[in-house]
């Protein structure tokens, strides 16, 4: 497995890779601003600290160069994606500048070369390594650590060979701590620490990158899948504490709304496929928002039929009233749609609708490979039968009297006077029932 080729992204769809790249771009912008804060902090500390009276003062020059380059990096990161080569150069420059800065200390303070090996400024190496970890890309963490280790190794070599007649090497730890002597074991410990920290962070980042890619991939999949579920169902699935299994259900008081285009089947057999699908899309784009505006949840699309529930996915105290409000609005939108079609000299079938309310069973059906939330109960069957009965009555939308009274009790206020029908026989229903015409 190659770390340099970013294997975690292998085989991902381009849209998921684009989402990952957007996360990386946002991270690079964050890193750029953090680097700007670091250089400003360093500059402030330098201005406030006492300074030796020397002719050579490399620190302000180094900080000035770093400030200019960091500002350029901030601007570049906001203009577009930073290429990998620029990030590699940035890592190399960060570490090189830090090492040169540390190296200059012995000149600035007029001390032997070994003087700079005692500088606590080396700790900034770990800041720059950790900074690269924000991108979730182990390659740049490794690059930063390796460059730092090589840089410090060269600094040690420089000290040893700076004065061939006095290498400053000692084996006495006390002499090392209290003078400019060099204890090679201590310096190698620094290199080992840099490499160990780099390796651990790189390994953690590599694992985190896999998690990031999986998370982005699942988020993209969830976003796409949510388009196939009602928002309430998607929320229920996402927030479920336990694995959803078939055969589990809950009794609810809910209302069922059914919509259907009259004559659509005949039209589908006569019109070109593109025209049929375009008409179906127009119909659904008008009906679905009307249903959702009143708290309805789309249970399923049945060809040109739409079945929606109110109070099933999420309990509601106004389920019947919401369903009738949605039905009224759907009928108004359908009538306006037909007028638009006539003005454009094209045919649009009329839309039928019906509502029934009562006790239903809401739950998951299917098997372990394919599950679906659905509703079962007398109200479901009654709503479907009432929708078909519109044609027999010559109206567009009806509701049974019991559901209508329940909606009134829940605060439903009809937009217009409704026609009440007594003792009407309905196909598939044993006893005659009272009906209310919602839309003639």
TrEMBL record:
Entry keyword set: Membrane, Transmembrane, Transmembrane helix
InterPro entries in the record: A/G_cyclase, Adenylyl/Guanylyl_Cyclase_3/4, Nucleotide_cyclase
Keyword check for Membrane: yes
Membrane spanning stretches: 30-48, 60-79, 85-103, 115-134, 140-161, 182-206
Gene Ontology BP annotations: cAMP biosynthetic process; intracellular signal transduction
Pfam family, one: Guanylate_cyc
Keyword Nucleotide-binding: no
Alphabetized SUPFAM superfamilies for the sequence: Nucleotide cyclase (SSF55073)
Domain Guanylate cyclase: 255-387
SMART domains: CYCc (SM00044)
GO molecular function, one term: adenylate cyclase activity
PANTHER family associated with the record: ADENYLATE CYCLASE, TERMINAL-DIFFERENTIATION SPECIFIC, ADENYLATE CYCLASE, TERMINAL-DIFFERENTIATION SPECIFIC-RELATED
Protein name in UniProt: Adenylate/guanylate cyclase domain-containing protein
Organism: Pelagibius litoralis
């Amino acid at each position: 497995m190659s770390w340099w080729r970013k294997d975690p992204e292998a085989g991902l769809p381009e849209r998921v890779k684009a989402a990952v790249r957007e996360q990386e771009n946002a991270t690079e912008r964050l890193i750029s601003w953090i680097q700007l804060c670091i250089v400003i902090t360093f500059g402030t500390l330098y201005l406030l600290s006492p300074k030796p009276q020397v002719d050579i003062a490399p620190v302000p020059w180094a900080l000035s160069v770093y400030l200019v380059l960091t500002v350029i990096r901030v601007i570049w990161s906001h203009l577009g994606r930073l290429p990998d080569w620029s990030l590699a150069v940035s890592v190399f420059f960060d570490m090189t500048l830090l090492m040169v800065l540390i190296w200059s200390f012995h000149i600035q303070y007029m001390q032997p070369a070994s003087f700079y090996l005692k500088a606590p400024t080396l700790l900034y190496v770990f800041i720059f390594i950790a900074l690269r970890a924000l991108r979730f890309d182990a390659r740049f963490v490794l690059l930063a650590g390796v460059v730092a280790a090589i840089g410090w190794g060269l600094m040690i070599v420089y000290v040893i060979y700076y004065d061939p007649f006095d290498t400053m090497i000692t084996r006495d730890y006390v002499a090392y701590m209290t003078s400019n002597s060099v204890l090679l074991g201590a310096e190698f410990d620094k290199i080992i620490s840099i490499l160990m920290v780099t390796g651990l962070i790189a390994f953690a980042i590599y694992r985190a990158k896999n998690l990031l890619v999986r998370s982005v991939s699942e988020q993209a999949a969830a976003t796409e899948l949510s388009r196939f579920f009602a928002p309430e169902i998607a929320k229920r699935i996402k927030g479920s504490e336990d694995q959803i299994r078939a055969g589990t259900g809950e009794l609810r008081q809910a209302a069922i709304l059914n919509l259907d285009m009259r004559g659509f089947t005949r039209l589908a057999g006569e019109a070109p496929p593109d025209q049929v699908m375009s008409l179906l899309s127009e119909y659904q784009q008008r009906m679905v928002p009307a249903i959702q505006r009143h708290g309805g949840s789309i249970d399923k699309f049945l060809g040109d039929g739409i079945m929606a529930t109110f109070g099933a996915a999420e309990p509601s105290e106004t389920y019947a009233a919401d369903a009738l409000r949605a039905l009224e609005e759907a009928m108004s939108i359908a009538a306006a749609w037909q007028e638009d079609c006539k003005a454009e000299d094209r045919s649009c079938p009329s839309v039928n609708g019906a509502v029934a309310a009562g006790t239903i069973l809401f739950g998951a059906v299917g098997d372990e490979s394919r599950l679906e939330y659905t509703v079962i109960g007398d109200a479901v069957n009654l709503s479907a039968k009432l929708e078909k009965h519109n044609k027999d009555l010559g109206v567009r939308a009806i509701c049974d009297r019991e559901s209508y009274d329940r909606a009134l009790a829940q605060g439903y206020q009809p937009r217009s006077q409704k026609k009440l029908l007594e003792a009407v026989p309905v196909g598939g229903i044993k006893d005659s029932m009272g009906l209310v015409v919602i839309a003639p």
